[in-house]
Amino acid sequence: MRLKELVIRDFGLKLLSFAFAVLIYVTVSTAIKREINLAADTLTIAESRIFPELPVLVVSSAADVRQFKVRPSYVEVEVRGAPGVISKLAEKDVRVLVDLTDIKWAVGLRKRVEVSTPPGVMHVRVTPPEVEIVMPAKTE
Q: How many C-beta atoms lie closer than 10 Å to residue 95's C-beta?
């Protein structure tokens, strides 16, 4: 008797809860499958391009008038994006920077290279990822 009461009591609410659970499961599983398919489509239509010699630009504060140099002064950058965007991409659209705004003085300093690309383009790798900073002594 107790088992029958347990099943029959609030049967409408239990049925509604079961229907919502099935609906949520179907929605989530469909969304996951779509996202995986979209990611796979995005990867298959992406095209990469290598720029073998992009100059490294040095960014420093306006008050710092020292002449910073970097070694090597050119790096190789690989970018990826949609074929239409990559085919129109020029070397001037990809900027390679080293930020030295907080540097006072250092010997043998190495800084990470930062790459700036237009929308729809992402940089995949930079070779070398760091450059050596050569700077004169600061005179005050």
A: 16
Q: Which fold has domain 46-134?
A: RNA Polymerase Alpha Subunit; Chain A, domain 2 (2.170.120)
| Phi and psi at residue 98, to the nearest 5° | -130, 120
SS3 assignment, position 104? coil
What does DSSP say about strands 74-81 and 109-112: parallel, antiparallel, or unpaired?
unpaired
Closest CA to 119 of 77, 76, 84: 84
C-beta neighbour count of 51 within 10 angstroms: 19
- DSSP letter (8 states) at residue 139: -
Global pTM value: 0.59
CB neighbour list of residue 112: distance below 8 Å, 6 or more residues apart: 98, 129, 130
Could you read off the pLDDT of 76-112 as tens digits, one per residue? Answer: 999 998 888 888 999 999 999 998 887 766 667 888 9
